[in-house]
Amino acid sequence: MTDRLIMTARLMMGAVYFINGFNWFFKIIGPYPSISDFAHIAPPPDVVVAMIQNGMLFHMVKATELLTGIALLSNRFVPLMLVAALPVTLPICLVDVFFVATPRGFVMGGGSIILNIFLLLAYFSHYRTVLAHRGVPGFTEPASAPDSEGALAAAISRFVGPIFPIFGIVAICFGAVMLCWLALLITQYAVHPMSFWEIHRAFAPR
């Protein structure tokens, strides 16, 4: 059962990140920003657009999402990409939950961090030596030390072990809602394509 939870969560997070990253470069979701939305019109002032105005920053964020999605869907370099995705996932969660502050923001932002943390724990064996409180240099050979795993890794295992399956079910529930939401937006854009600006003008307060 645990293996199926992990595989399902991996595929869900991979699909969510792939779709979000892909949409930046090739628009498939109307309300979400894409490169093409800002070809002739400057972005409005907000947290996300501040990164877009930076130039390379948002490109790097979306490229990380896209590469993470490809890695998780193909089951290649998963432990590496889960760590690489975390600096992207955490700001996504903060912006969606605290700045967007809508049910959609809570589900998408909260779901992203829950899936990311669950999968980090699922692949925890790959990170045990990183948690050693005294590191030993080693380039040509694996690092070894008397406390190669450390007390912290053991404590995390003891704490997470009993609740891990429940955490996995919660993560998958969030992932299912996230994918349903993205599928709805993709279908909506395919049936009735509207630009980022048209959608935001339609819903702007009058």
* Alpha carbon gyration radius: 19 Å
Shape: globular
Low-confidence stretches: none
Total of helices? 8
How are helices and strands ordered from N to C?
HHHHHHHH
Task: Give a short account of the largest sheet.
Answer: none
Question: Strand percentage, roughly?
Answer: under 5%
Secondary-structure-based class equals mainly alpha
Features:
about 210 residues; globular; mainly alpha
Quick overview:
This protein is mostly helical and 206 residues long. It has helices at 2-25, 47-54, 56-74, 78-100, 103-122, 150-160, 164-191, 196-203.
Describe how the helices and strands are arranged.
Elements: H1 2-25, H2 47-54, H3 56-74, H4 78-100, H5 103-122, H6 150-160, H7 164-191, H8 196-203
Overview of this structure, please?
This protein is mostly helical and 206 residues long. The chain is 68% helix and 0% strand. The protein is built from 8 helices and no strands. The chain has helices at residues 2-25, 47-54, 56-74, 78-100, 103-122, 150-160, 164-191, 196-203. Helix 1 (2-25) packs parallel to helix 7 and helix 4 (78-100) packs antiparallel against helix 5. The chain is globular and about 55 Å long. The mean pLDDT is 83.
